[in-house]
Amino acid sequence: MRQVVGALLAALMMACPGFAQTSPSASASKSAHRGKVTSQTVSAQLDQMQKAIETQQQQIQRLQQQVQSRDAVIQQLQQQMSQVQSSSEQAGQKADAAASQSAQQGEQFAAVRNDVSDLKANSTNTVLELQETQKRINGLESPLAIHVKGITITPGGFLAAETVWRQHALASDINTPFNTIPFSGSSQNSMSEFFATGRQSRVSLLAEGKLKEAKLTGYVEADWLSAGVTSNNNESNSYTMRQRQLWGQAALRGWSFTGGQMWSLVTETKKGLDNRTEALPMTIDPQYHVGFSWARQYGFRVVKDFHDKMWLGFSVENPQTTLTSHGNATNFLVGAAGAGGGLYNLNANYSFNSAPDLVFKAAFEPGIGHYEVFGILSQFRDRVFPNATAGTPSAVGAFNDSRTGGGVGANARWSVMNKHIDFGLHFLGGEGIGRYGTSGLPDVTVRPDGTLALVRSYQSLGTLELHSKMWDVYMNAGGEYAGRTAFINSAGKGVGYGSPLFNNAGCTTEIIPGDAKGFTPGSLANCTGDTRNIIEGTFGIWYRLYKGEKGTLQFGPQYSYIVRHTWSGIGSLPGTPFISGEPQGTENMFLTSFRYYLP
């Protein structure tokens, strides 16, 4: 401490120039006077300096402590840096090693990946080969189609066991001749009938082949609802196979060309104008339902598809004339019975047609429903003999007379509730179109002079179908009408169809059988009974016992009620003298069907 104080005094003396430059004599003279003051002043200054030194020492200590703390932190940071550098070096070494190992593993992985790819490819090929082999095995066991030279042949059809019970006998199998419903005077009206049959069983074969731009299709369909000269129900119940459809088709670029025997273009379809999508009533009765317009006959059809929204079709079809006349003279000729050498039925009549029927149709599917409009154009012809009724009958002056008939129709069908409900409407009206109705009403009749007269006809049908996975329920109501086409000959008697001068008085009176063999019902006398309209209502159910890859097994009952009204004629009903004779026939029918459909 003394050394520090001495140093400070020396510094102080050097800082005071006056004191440093005073001469020794002056100093000596004044020292006595100032000695005391100086000593006190120095002592006070020393105390102050000592306090300042102590304060500085404290500050120095604090600074030293801070420096020590800083040095410790720096040392700690240096150690951490060293550790980080060491870890970084180690990580770098490991990264280098990992990179080297990764490169090796990458090469190994690439090799393994190539091996896996090869294995997958081999496995895929093996699986495909196994699948193809399995398909071939399954195909051999239960083929859905047969492949021959690039053609896919698909068999189809069903096997049926069916029955029909009618309240009034018609001597008819499962199909119903609606225009022969008996009147109350007929012996058949007093007897019911039951028949069981398998004849509606059906076989079909669909052949399809594809070219670069075209699809070729052929279709064959047949059943056994045909009778040969030896067919009967006595023991063998043998009946002949008949053609239903036989046609071929070429389709390309929205066009389709179809030729052969097929459903007429008049028949409603469910999709566009496509063959094999016909909207047939779901009935067991193969004559379908009153009011349904159809034919299966030769046709050559051309259809253009416009983006699956609109279709236009034109068909040239086989013609035929159905004729009913009463009271006419033998002064006309329409056709003849079939020629055996011409391979026609000897017991059926064939008209001598002058031209094919022409059918035009447009179909629309705007997004909701299916709609069709169509038209028919038909030519009718007979040969007229104006001198056949003269005093000396002669064919001199005979000539051919032609008439043009036709009609227009519309169909509409809607599917709602995810196709669980189908509702359809159909209408066809015109002149000379009777044969396109399921009841077989006439196209034409004959005037007194032997020329043809077209019969006006209307056909309508409404259908409601309910569908589920296991059930189908169907309800149909339809009617057909044939207009009165009546004339009066030179003798004042009625001729033609539905004349009010025709005698209907005997339609309600039963007569004895026609012979002693037991199979000839008595023919009603004085009963013309031309049909005015026929109305049918039907309710039926189909229940699928099984539906899967093995096919479909289903059962269904059907009930139908039919009423046949006639044109009024001469004669009154017994006890009702003010009511014109309008005989009426009714029919109640119950049908059942048990079917197995091929898959």
As a whole number of angstroms, the C-alpha radius of gyration is 56 Å
CATH topology of the largest domain: Porin
What would the average pLDDT be, to the nearest integer? 86
At CATH's second level, what is the architecture of the largest domain? Beta Barrel
* CATH homology superfamily of the largest domain: Porin
Share of β-strand residues = 35-45%
CATH class type of the largest domain:
Mainly Beta
Q: Could you list some keywords that capture this structure?
A:
599 residues, 16-stranded antiparallel beta barrel, 27 strands
Notes on the protein architecture:
The structure is a single chain. The chain has about 600 residues and is an alpha+beta fold. It folds into 2 domains: about 45-140; about 140-225 and about 240-250 and about 260-385 and about 410-595, Porin. The protein is built from 3 helices and 27 strands. The protein has helices at about 1-15, 15-20, 25-140; strands spanning about 145-150, 150-165, 195, 200-210, 215-225, 240-250, 255-265, 295-305, 310-315, 330-335, 335, 350, 355-365, 370-385, 400-415, 420-430, 445, 450-455, 455-465, 470-480, 485-490, 495, 530-550, 550-565, 570-575, 575-580, 585-595. The strands form 5 sheets. A 16-stranded antiparallel barrel has the order 2-4-5-6-7-8-9-13-14-15-16-19-20-23-24-27. Residues about 1-5 and about 10-35 have low confidence and may be disordered.
